[in-house]
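Newbie here. two chains, one complex. Structure please?
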Amino acid sequence: MVATHVLAVIETSAGELRPASLELITVARELAEDGTVVALVVGHAVGQVAADIATRGVNAVLVADDALLTRYTTDAWAHVIETAVTEQQPRIVLLPGTTAGRDLGPYLAARSGTTSLSDCISLEWDGEDLLARRPVYGGKMVADVRLTPAHRAWAVVRAGAYAAPEATSPPAAMLPLQIDPSRVRQRVRLKDVAEKRGGSVNLEMAERIVTGGRGVGSPEGFALIEQLAAALGAGVGATRAVTDAGWRPHHEQIGQTGRNVKPKLYLAVGVSGAVQHLAGMRGSDTIIAINRDPDAPIFRLAALGIVGDLNEIVPALTRELTKSQDG
Amino acid sequence: MKILVAIKQVPDPTVVAFDEQGTLQPNTGLIVNDYDSYAIEAAVRLKEADPDTTDVVAMSLGPASAKDAIARALAMGADRGVHLLTDGTVPDSLAVARAIRTEADAGEYDLVLVGQESSDGGTGNVGPETAALLDWPLISNVVALELEGHKLTLGREVEDGRHVVEVTLPAVLCVLTGLNEPRYPSLKGIMGARKKPLAVTESATDTRAVSWNPPHPEDRPEIGVVVDAEEIGVDAAAHLIVTLLRERDLLP
């Protein structure tokens, strides 16, 4: 495969870049080989984002800038991407592994009669086929999915799977993508956006975080997590299962739709490591995990993993920490 | 109002394990996909709010065992079941979406509910693909739902926080946990489910857009060590953690 034309959809929300979009350029370059990579920046008031993207090794930047696109809605964004695809005729369209990208990949693919390669952690040519590797069973295993693109391939790339490209190239040409707002359907109307509220500790700034998962077992079980966090001077985080169950407040949720953290120390207790959770903490420097299940995906990211009963290990660890500080 | 809930039977993710060839351990329990239980519950609550004019159909595409998943939906309060029986081949997401589209078209539904993704394959493709094929509005990551006439007000959990959106039926919703608390089927529900209609048809073999290889463990190098606290003892395990924290200057 040579000279493939690849379109990478760069997502913004309220003018801000979704970092997962940047990583698409790296994948796009690999797949394009001698071909061209065009970035499509979608949003409103995205001039600065587009100028930055232009320096990241793309051949051109298409800019779809309209008030209708300030935040993601399926109809408007699908219209814009289809307009760009009609104009550009790419062989591959890449979307970021965000909630919007995970809608749009399969939605647009199905509209053109095919399916999307979703949640790709790697994507490469194998002769005429595209081979995507993706996590299955909540990240316990991976599976390879093969697509023989009849005409055009659509793929959603998992956030964090590829490194972002450096902003080092001379700026590529930026071209506006003309959209006719009167042709944009607005069947779903966005009425309100409730931004995430911070808790007492700003988890994004915390150097150490202790996160409790479903394995903690109950709201009362979080007393152990809090004692450990206190001994470490750490913030307390939770998985989505925990905040859904009402054991902890929603602002403590770490993951794809929660907080995105990169502390120096991430101590995961009773956290299996579902892909959505990993998306929010993968960038942590040192990850330590305590879990009963030796196959828990979190162990594969951990510098140190302890298999065992957290109800015994956590109090022992808290004691040891208190002792080492006293001594 | 007619509601179609599309559900999937999956290996119980709390016990799922594989041998070295990537084969699922035999006799792994099968359950209704977790997100799908929230979709069933949402449909049943809409029915309870307007029992006389609401019809809830639970459909599943799968092997013979999938009838148990449908039975659970019926026991929770769905009115009827549709089982598209597969012959052992596993359809890809587009084939599933096409089957849902066919049922939704034929049955004149107003609302299609699916779980955000399955715990096995987990592509999350089925909802968006179904919406595209039906050309109905798509609302994913739904964590709140209110119906007033034909207008739905929905909460979506996304990276920004929570979006509140409105849509007029028909629509396809992909629901997340947290939307509600799925009920346990009552004894009366379980007994009643046996009398509810269940239509079983052999699913037409669909051409597949993609082919899946069997799953295998990720060949990423382990970056650390994993130790068993039962072997070395709890205090030694705690001491190991503190040693690493000291080594990396992570103690407070």
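Moderator note: The radius of gyration of chain B is 22 Å. Chain B has two domains: 2-202, 221-252. Thread marked as resolved.
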